[in-house]
Amino acid sequence: MGICNSKPPTHETPSSPISDTQPTKNDHILSEDNFVTANDSSKLPSSAVNGENPSNEQAKDKNELQNVRKSPFFPFYSPSPASYLFSKKSPARSPANASSKSTPKRFFKRPFPPPSPAKHIKAVLARRHGSVKPNEAAIPEGSEGEVVSGLDKSFGFSKHFGSKYELGDEVGRGHFGYTCAANSKKGELKGKQVAVKVIPKAKMTTAIAIEDVRREVKILRALTGHNNLVQFYDAYEDHDNVYIVMELCEGGELLDRILSRGGKYSEDEAKAVLIQILSFVAFCHLQGVVHRDLKPENFLFTSKDDNSELKAIDFGLSDFVKPDERLNDIVGSAYYVAPEVLHRSYSTEADVWSVGVIAYILLCGSRPFWSRTESGIFRAVLKADPSFDELPWPSMSVEAKDFVKRLLIKDPRKRMTAAQALSHPWIKNCSDVNLPLDILIFKLMKAYMRSSSLRKAALRALSKTLTEDELFYLREQFALLEPNKNGTICFDNIKTALMKNATDAIKDSRITDFLSSFNALQYRRMDFEEFCAAALSVYQFEVLERWEQHARCAYELFEKDGNRAIVIEELASELGLGPSIPVHAVLHDWIRHTDGKLSFLGFVKLLHGVSTRSLAKA
Ligand SMILES: Nc1ncnc2c1ncn2[C@@H]1O[C@H](COP(=O)(O)OP(=O)(O)OP(=O)(O)O)[C@@H](O)[C@H]1O
Ligand SMILES: [Ca+2]
Ligand SMILES: [Ca+2]
């Protein structure tokens, strides 16, 4: 990886404190020494920002720097000085500072920076506010983010906020709004403390910004009933603001807790946090909602208690996504953004990547992809492999490393889903987790149902090579479909399982339309053996070290039972190859010349089947 490790890197060198200041354009500058020098006053936190006396601040910096220089290891193995930045008296968190534009500034003086608040990708801000100069945005934007006058800023929300709630102290602040505690004056919540996210209409200067707020409320309203999701109560508006009323979480942001611990989470502690995050993410994905802004700032603890429950907040960038749909707008926060988002073709897997980044940070205290500039971070996300060689990784369990690596796989088809992550040995071996239904099962089953008998035979052969560990997840998923006493499922099982888990969000994400793909199961039943073939992801299988062995073994089984002579045209249509492809040249090696049956190469290609893109068009 080489970006955020213990050796002074030779490129993308962090030489300034991580802060909310705009990244500079000189991300190509190389630095021999990435230690921040204590007398480089331009890099010191300003007292105007953090309220500290500048000379104290310099002294602290110096001390910390000395600690760092003395330590042969990472800065995270020296006590973190970060917690003082988050004390209640921090002006960044007080209402008096309410005019500042975004997340409170927090500064660090470390050669290898710990996590800090993540900024939204500049292109997001350009689209939403029309405020970033076109040449500043890393990704060129169209005219959709243009500032338009005469926008309709009425949302149809109740206008009686003032008569129902009394606003109290500010409890947090983001780029789009600020959040206050409030007291409910009447109704069901009378006397109860709530949180109110206030989004000023003056900030909604583009049609997209307005649409985002509408969708934020719609998604919050629709998604209900998960323990790790903040409870939404209602939305209001007046001439100046939109008010989102929700459950008050008094335990602060996950980011603050990570920082106050100096980045040290034991495997078990990290696991406890990640189980909650993944359980929430799997829930969203089953409802067809992609959060798109998962980061430690957007998870809050309900209380200061060490074992407090974690709640996801901030659906400001979230969207509905149909099972076969790919989204293309570049959205999120740079450190956490998935490679396929930067490639403008993504779905729910992008959230899982962000959880991978959070998992990496929880376990080692550093960000897996870091650079001083946005474009540098993007380059790292697209090209660099995170380091697992530096401390503390060598002392961590093999399972923990495998878990994080499989969340941070660049190809989204090969990455684990949230439900699979909850079934990963690192989690399942030591905790009693309620495994959720995985939307991936339905996507794969749909592709299976549309496949030829030849591909089904190939998949069946591969499924016979699964080990007990690999079967665990499929067994759990099959059980969630509640097979009858003969151990088989049909259309009704799939429908019932989906409906049992449905919230209102499912209407917008059209998950129910998807059910028609399973019509064939109205007339026949599927047993566990066939389910394994149907719900097996060949792409995910490919990342396993023993893949080649599995595939060879499966090919032998297929040879005995399923392989048959096939003509090139049949294979081309099976694989969804278009007329522009010279099939005879391309598929030449996929068919064995001696008997016209599939070669090993052809077998592997057939296993992958038609690309999801051509399936989506079908
Ligand atoms: N229910 C809540 N209880 C307590 N604090 C909250 C609650 N909701 C939000 N906050 C605080 O307010 C902050 C800002 O809220 P939120 O993240 O929703 O705003 P935003 O403007 O959309 O942020 P961003 O800049 O990440 O897009 C949060 O980081 C958190 O500290
Ligand atoms: Ca936020
Ligand atoms: Ca937001």
Automatic annotation (TrEMBL):
Q: Name one GO molecular function term.
A: ATP binding
GO annotations of cellular component type: membrane
* Stretch list, region Disordered: 1-66, 87-114
- Cited Gene3D superfamilies: EF-hand (1.10.238.10), Phosphorylase Kinase, domain 1 (3.30.200.20), Transferase(Phosphotransferase) domain 1 (1.10.510.10)
SUPFAM superfamilies in UniProt:
EF-hand, Protein kinase-like (PK-like)
The main location class comes to: membrane
Q: Which PROSITE patterns match?
A: EF_HAND_2, PROTEIN_KINASE_ATP, PROTEIN_KINASE_DOM, PROTEIN_KINASE_ST
Known EC number: 2.7.11.1
- Principal EC category: transferase
What are the record keywords, sorted? ATP-binding, Kinase, Lipoprotein, Myristate, Nucleotide-binding, Phosphoprotein, Repeat, Serine/threonine-protein kinase, Transferase
Q: Where is the composition biased (Polar residues)?
A: 12-24, 34-57
Q: How does it sit in the membrane?
A: Lipid-anchor
Q: Which residues bind ATP?
A: 197
Protein family: Belongs to the protein kinase superfamily. CAMK Ser/Thr protein kinase family. CaMK subfamily.
* Annotated protein name in UniProt: non-specific serine/threonine protein kinase
Organism annotation: Quillaja saponaria (Soap bark tree)
